[in-house]
Amino acid sequence: MDKKVQINRKRLIQRLDELAQIGALDGGGVSRLTFSDADKAGRDLTVSWMKALELTVHIDQVGNLIAVRPGEEDLPPVMLGSHVDTVTVAGRFDGSYGVLCALEVVQVLNENNIATRRPIAVVAFTNEEGVRYTPGMLGSMAYVGELSVSDARAIQGFDGSNFGEEMDRIGYAGSMEPGAIKPHAFVEIHIEQGPVLDQADLPVGVVHTITGITWLEVTITGTANHAGTTPINLRKDAGLAAAKLIEFLRDIATSIGGQQRATCGMIAFEPNAINVIPSKAVLTVDLRNSDGQALIAAEQRLQARAKELETSDGVTITIRDLEHVLPMKFDPLIVDAIGQSTKELNLPAHRMVSGAGHDAQLLAKMCPTAMIFVRSRDGISHNPAELSSPEDLEKGANVLLQTALNLANQD
Ligand code: HGY
Ligand code: MN
Ligand code: MN
pTM for this one? Predict the structure, then answer.
């Protein structure tokens, strides 16, 4: 195995810039929601790079892209990758960096005529973000058999669109069965999206555990009434009850503490008029914890508070599950393989927990899996200000290269 081989930083940055042009927003940032025209264009560009690297490109029945570089032996591949869909107003690194690093690894191996025992598969999973269609990490969920193709195709988006129809419309409804290519191992490189590496002043992290995620849709129904004439004590105000519930989310996070997070990212009132007491509020809840028991407790506290509000505010509250993904401890052998690569590259290996969800936590159900993190400046993400330095991006990519080489030549 050639230790000198290194990734080409300039080319990696160039590809990140080129992909970030697709779905670029006037005010800055990127938007490539699943199966949108921008997502199609991002997929088309990614597939063109895969083909230029002489990879065999497969598209599966939920639109996952799996591009394979043959190995010397017909063995299960080492899989590298992430996602190219984004949140509504995104930075340029979330997801894209992981897919482009995987392509860079392949290009370096091709250029240096380095053969590996095992094939290497580059993957871009469908709908990791879950912003248009829930659940998030849908593509990897289907890949490991936790979501059927028919159930995925039937999903209706927040915008009323249908997952299957939109996938057909952009021409990415492939024929391969999700999960048909079972990896030997999966390594995902991703920006940290949090402040840990930045505060520790470290470029690279090795992720050993990833948070669990619970997404809920809460519908609060009260009574529309006149904002001027209705006495306060006669109101069944869905808007006020929503505000109390959102305030309670913060109490959940602070009272449970540790890695507990609680967020309301979306809310809509009906009839949504300045002088009408809202009859209805629909809001989303995002609960996270790397401790599965604590995550369940957080959800139970929310349900109890909803019951209280039904009595105190005279509203009815229904809670719909949108996503339940368990916390995951990654395979120590893959964590150590990444740690070994950081040592070979004289990089400090900071072992850490991921507060963000990633496709790796689903792939970990199918094969030994772990993640590499790269520092996010000020911990900012899901925001156009998301930034990682070229030096750190290069360091991370070289850790992926070394790890992929080690894993692709092992028994
Ligand atoms: O929500 C997440 O944690 C990821 O960015 N999809
Ligand atoms: Mn991501
Ligand atoms: Mn994200």
Answer: 0.96
